Amino acid sequence: MGLSNVPRFGSYSFETWADHWRDALLWDPLASFTVVLALSTVALWLATRKLWKGAEAQAILQYRAYVGIDRIDVTKIPMESEEPVSAWKFEFWWTNSGSTPARNLSIISGHYLHDKVMTKDHRYDKQNTIIRNFNLRPNGEAAGTIVIPTKLLTAYGPRMKLYVYTSVEYDDIYSRTRRRRTEFCAEVLFSEDCYHRSCVVNMPLYGPYNGADEDCLFKPREKLLGSR
Question: What is the pTM of this model?
Answer without folding.
Answer: 0.70
